[in-house]
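Retro notes - structure team

What went well: the batch runner handled both jobs without manual restarts.
What didn't: labels got mixed up in the shared folder, which is why I'm recording both outputs here explicitly, each with its sequence directly above its tokens.

Job 1
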Amino acid sequence: MALNRMYIRDANCAIVTYDVTDAESLEHAERWIDEIDEAAPSECIIVMAGNKMDAPPNKHQVFAN
């Protein structure tokens, strides 16, 4: 992910999106957040967004608390 760090290092904010119908997608999102925390300035704002919320509830694998 060295190339990613080049883009992240000057970021003011980041939006990390995950698929609520795929639990593994949330794990990948968490790794992206770690990457952003390491490479971006400390004042970088990170926002997570769940995608595919319109899928039937029985398809959701990730639930908000």
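Job 2
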Amino acid sequence: MSRKDDVKLLNQLPKEKIPEYIFMQLRNLWAVDGLYYLGIEEHYSTEVATDLDAKVWAAMGKIEARKLKEFLGITNTDLPSMMKALQYTTWALDLEDKEIEIKKDHALIRNVRCRVQNTRRIKGLKEFGCKPVRFGFLKAFAKEFNPDIVVTCTICPPDKHPENLWCQWEFSYKEK
């Protein structure tokens, strides 16, 4: 089978099933990410797993930004353009309960309910200190759009957080 055959196969899906299929594949991607993380954590340590995860996701931030800019035909380097692309990333698109605010010179994204953290709780695991992982991803993503975009973490584990907010990331421009 060729790529052309795969496209034909996908085109056989009912149009209304395509978003559901995409979300299922995103969950599969996150399951693989989680299984790798848990394996490294079990074999080595949480610190080693987090360090490796942070390096991988920083590289992914740059890769996703480049690919999404091309795919979406984004040529602007402004904050609203970056936020448009960010919403299509494997990370943001998979957030089930997110809030996004976009203004000309300031933007933010909040993860209100985190499936990864809630799954860890159900399994009796401690919260995943995902701040360095997400920070690296978001900084690399933003930098690929515009080196003058600054990413600030307002809250993210291992930070203490209220029950109704897992993380919040703000984006602005460097002061000149």
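One thing worth noting from job 2: DSSP finds seven helices and four strands in the chain.
We'll revisit the folder naming next retro.
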